[in-house]
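Journal club side-thread
Mid-discussion, someone asked how the predicted structure for our own chain would compare to the paper's figures. Pasting it here so we can look after the session.
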Amino acid sequence: MAIFATANFTGTDDATLQVADTNFTLHSSYTVNSVITSNRCRNSATAGLSCYYHSGVSANADYSASLDIYAASNSANSQSGAACRLSTSDNTMYLARYIQGTGWTLAKIVSGTFTQLGSTYAQTLTVGNIYNVKVQAVGSTIKMFVDGVERVSVTDTAITTAGKAGLRSQLGTATTGYHLDNFQAIDASSTSSVYSDLALIWDMAGSVMGDLSLKWDLLNSVDGDLSVRFDVLSQVFADLAVQWDVFTEVNGDLSILFDMRNMVASDLQILWDSAGTVFSDLALRWSMGDLGGKITIIGSSFRRFIQ
């Protein structure tokens, strides 16, 4: 997954968002500015909606937009949320938001016409607390997450173009309403695949190689060759080269050979063999070369293979 837009809303208090961060543009369908308050972003008016889009460019139309909501107060009619597939020329978007007195809702706006998608997730925000909301669009699957938990998932084909990631809010002062922080937009790792949202995290802390954290994303494969992207998040050896050989298709037994060369210690080979099953009862064998020894781990070590 690749992050293509971020914002922390630092700047001088009361500066408009587009001045404090030139990556943001006030949408032409909205007239109310958002401003900076204590390194957060808020609506500047006691009436009216504000909507901005970020200049970041997604790889395609499959991505998510998220932000933190700080509850300064639960003022009547206040609302704030994150948007994706936001048109820069028309009032069109998918939106995940919190509405005071209602709860968390997922919605689409198409040329100004608002339609709620799925059910409301009811919750009363605690003043002073921070909550995270994310809207995600992958193909026709549109989802809302609250604090990392999926709360709504629907199928909708009304908005298919990538557009932009953005934010939308109503009502606020320096001490009231819902203030925004930590905006982020991320390309989705998988589209139209049986491996949608597959994320495996390895943590080899304390091993003879040092701390190693690897994140896998399996991309866009249903019954053909497997395409894999490898993200090395933190490791103590440099210039890690990875060569992958995928010997079979995902319809049958999966056998993947990793060959990691140019490490500060010795070559490391990891052989996966899930013979007889597809991503079940995974057998993992490490052969550590001159690092000495062999470790064999048998069992279902990883849990989120197919959602």
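Post-session note: The radius of gyration is 23 Å.
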